[in-house]
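2.7 Reproducibility. Because tokenized structures are sensitive to small changes in the input, we list the exact sequence used for Response regulator transcription factor, including any N-terminal residues retained from the expression construct. No trimming or masking was applied before prediction.
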Amino acid sequence: MTISVLLADDQAMVRNGLRLILENQADISVIAEAADGVEAIALARELRPDVCLVDIRMPRLDGVEVTRALAGPDVPEPLKVVIVTTFDLDEYVYGALRGGAAGFILKDAGPALLAEAVRAAHAGDALVSPSITARLLRQFTPVSQTRTPLTDREADVVKAIARGRTNHEIAAELFIALSTVKGHVAGIQHKLSARNRTEIAIWAWQSGLL
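Resulting structure tokens (single pass, no recycling of outputs):
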């Protein structure tokens, strides 16, 4: 199955570079490009790509506003948005994550991480550039102070999620079935009242689990 991707960046050279990287992957196809935020929202709503790769700084609407419009908690059928940016400023990343972004990576992270970010978002996981994970996630207000304690295994899964691991990687690291990982993630989200894996990671850092 091919993962369809929308690229949104105001620089044509950057879009071309991202397209070359992604289309070199057998399982990823770029179906559209947008040069600004308004165009990105319109194309995303029309084409319904599997993943939207969105830059932060764009004309008309920035990446945070695009994320809220496509992936926010009030969107009936949210799309999966990954922020790809040169700017790792706290205000941008906080806004994107709170707006529903599935993850964010820096443009200098390399081709492999870019492709993995697309695959992770498509699989319902989240991928964050390792260089900024701890610095950023420690700043968030806790998602929830759960009254139902996590089991030891759930705590292991939470730690792995906070380190950016996908479900497949967690299954391999903990020597458990993929279906078991998914079950743990669902249970953790319920206990923490977390909407997604990003909020689980936020809780992990804020609670001192890591």
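The beta strands are 3-8, 28-34, 51-54, 81-85, 103-106.
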